[in-house]
Amino acid sequence: MRHQNKVKRLGKPQDQRKALLRSLATSLFMHGEINITMTRAKVLKSYAEKLITFAKKGDVHSRRQAAKFIFDQGIEGCVCANGEEFTASKDDESKCECGGKAVQATVLRKLFSEIGPKYKDRNGGYTRILRTGHRRGDNTEMALIQLT
Q1: Are 86 and 97 in contact (CB under 8 A)?
Q2: What is the DSSP letter of 140?
Q3: Model-level pTM?
Q4: What is the pLDDT of residues 94-127, one digit of tens each?
Q5: Where are the alpha helices (DSSP H) in the chain?
Q6: Which domains are assigned to the chain?
């Protein structure tokens, strides 16, 4: 019996479950919304909200802790030191139009520079789950999880 056991196993061993949640959270922060099964959406909701809470703090320790729980993939474009986004040319990626130094945009930078400050005043409820019907192949209930 699994009394007082809150971990949803998702039919996977622990290492595969952790990798799945990391990739789902990375995709959620990269795109803003993803379409997955209802069970995975419910598990991802609590996982993602913990990461957004780290981003709200914004200090170095929180950044390092959040880096453990997402894949820090690069996103298209670059970010200037003063926060402006732009597309750098291939030959000169280190210079921005304003003259500042440019760094490649990543999911972790987006989480801490855009998503975290956006929810600074809110005490939870950063994500929303919308039911989208059933999948045609196996009749699994699908859901759209998005950042509010």
Answers
A1: yes
A2: -
A3: 0.81
A4: 666 666 667 788 999 999 999 999 999 999 999 9
A5: 14-31, 38-57, 60-67, 107-110, 116-118
A6: 14-76+108-147 (3.90.1030.10)
